[in-house]
Amino acid sequence: MSSDFQLDYASLDKSRWKNLPPPPGFSIQPTSSAKHPAKQANKVAASYTALKEKRAWDLAISPAKSLPMQAFMLYMSGGGVQIFSMGIVFMLLLTPFKNIAGMNAAFAPFAPSPSNSTSWNTLPLQKLVYVACNLLTLAVGLWKCRSMGLLPTGTGDWLAFETRGQPPEISL
Question: How far apart are CA 169 and CA 75, in angstroms?
């Protein structure tokens, strides 16, 4: 079965298409990056550095962003000492320590220079905020432990360590 229909692109009238206006956003003038590649490279490097710093700030406040969800989980687990509520409290108390222990490795991709990416002096403000947010998470976990009665906060919790004085009847 042969096809009788054929397209001949060579016979198209090209002058008809040359009179169309350029599409929106199209510019015939050369761009500034072609004229000044060094300026463009500096601009790209500066924007990349700004992006890395923004991502470091996002990582620094990420423990605070997850705090409402963790508070809701604590609320839903109840106030009793049960396996589910203990698991959630254990996770809430353990996570800040793991985050603080791995802080330098977590911030290493955002370091301005790769030579000292795991140094404590790299991104100090972001790391300080990260530690503060993790301590806030730890405080919420300790508050839940106190509300469940797991922390010895009352005087009755320490009666075993108090010494008794001589009764006045015997001391005469």
Answer: 52
